[in-house]
Specification:
The chain has five helices and five strands. Strands 4-3-2-1-5 form a five-stranded antiparallel beta sheet. It is of the alpha+beta class and about 210 residues long.
């Protein structure tokens, strides 16, 4: 009973890591501040702060009368001004969300079998499938983070439409909160995937010691 309790706790801990990572990954898609632009303002562009997200951009323009105009734009499939790293990050994060969802689903089935005392091949394979899906999801998120981080470090610009009143490059470009959230999500997804694979091997060795010793 003590052995089962320890393994069950370990399994649920791995599941918790994957769940938190999946939630943070989904949150990062909705956050608008992947890249933060600070524009000092030179005619004809007013001083502004722009938050560039994966699916929308919000621009805060500062006028001389101390008022701030807020403009948010939701990207559409017809937009051709977005850089490739944003398009790719959209696909990577959506794919990671799907992989993470199914990884959690498979893990739930594996934990259910454990709670019923079923330690057959399907249970062990479920841990492998779950681990692979979580690792794949973590890698997709990590690639999206690195691509956008590289764009920020190298001060890559965006050709916004003239109506946005934004220059091609900002005076200062910073890493937004969304990238940090996505980075944590990638770390948790990778960690849960690795632990799931290691946990499967440990579980199999304890249930079938005579095989693991051969």
């Amino acid at each position: 009973m003590a052995w089962f309790s320890n393994n069950a706790n370990c399994g649920f801990s791995v599941f918790t890591l994957a769940t938190v990572g999946w939630i943070l990954s989904s949150m990062s898609m909705g956050l608008v501040d992947w890249r933060t632009w600070h524009v000092k303002g030179t005619p004809p562009y007013p001083p502004a702060v722009a938050y560039v997200g994966l699916f929308r951009v919000c621009i805060y323009e500062h006028h001389t009368n101390r008022t701030t105009a807020i403009f948010c734009y939701l990207y559409s499939s017809k937009d051709n001004f977005l850089p490739s790293e944003i398009y790719m990050a959209q696909s990577f994060l959506l794919t990671a969300s799907i992989f993470g969802f199914f990884g959690r689903l498979v893990k739930i089935l594996a934990l259910r079998d454990m709670s019923l005392g079923l330690f057959g091949g399907n249970t062990y394979n479920s841990f492998i499938v779950s681990g692979i899906l979580n690792i794949a999801a973590g890698m997709f998120i990590l690639i999206a983070v690195f691509q956008n981080y590289d764009a920020i470090i190298n001060s890559k610009g965006i050709t916004f439409p003239p109506s946005f009143q934004m220059s091609f490059k900002p005076d200062v470009q910073e890493v937004g909160m969304a990238i940090q959230v996505a980075g944590i999500a990638a770390f948790l997804m990778l960690l849960s995937g690795i632990f799931s694979l290691l946990y499967r091997c440990s579980l199999y060795a304890q249930v079938h010691p005579e095989i693991s010793e051969m």
